[in-house]
Design a protein that fits this description.
By secondary structure, this protein is of the alpha+beta class. It has one domain (7-110): Ribonuclease H-like superfamily/Ribonuclease H (Nucleotidyltransferase, domain 5, 2-Layer Sandwich). The chain has helices at 20-37, 50-56, 65-78, 95-107; strands spanning 7-13, 42-47, 83-88, 111-117.
């Protein structure tokens, strides 16, 4: 997550055994929670999950029972922001997300959140 103050907030957490789609929604919900706690009024989400993006944009229906409640929770949380946009990126353009996911799996427990300046990215 990039802030207006030239900071990036990286969040990763271990979810155990779950589907990629549940993990994508869990990541979105965590990002929304942190953005709200940071006082964000506007939010742009970039995701490599085409399914998540199209479901959040209303282009695809949410049919899977494991995703319905997560989708509804995300839609409710979005009401707390003045402006919200979401767009898809190719997986190759989202290497930071892969790095964070791998770190969470390697830790195999808990949640981690780090802040650093944009010019000091790992």
């Amino acid at each position: 997550m990039k802030t207006d103050g030239d900071e990036i907030i990286e969040i990763s957490g271990y979810l155990g055994t779950t589907t990629n789609n549940v993990a994508e929604y869990s990541g979105l919900l965590e990002a929304l929670t942190v953005a709200k706690s940071e006082g964000a009024a506007e939010l742009e989400i970039v995701s490599d999950s085409e399914l998540l993006v199209k479901q959040m944009l209303g282009k695809y229906r949410v049919k899977h029972p494991n995703l319905i409640a997560l989708h509804e929770r995300a839609r409710l949380m979005l009401r707390e922001f003045r402006r919200f946009s979401i767009r898809h990126t190719l997986r190759a353009g989202n290497k930071d997300a892969d790095r964070l996911a791998n770190a969470a799996v390697d830790r195999a427990s808990g949640r981690m959140m780090e802040r650093h300046r944009i010019d000091a990215q790992p």
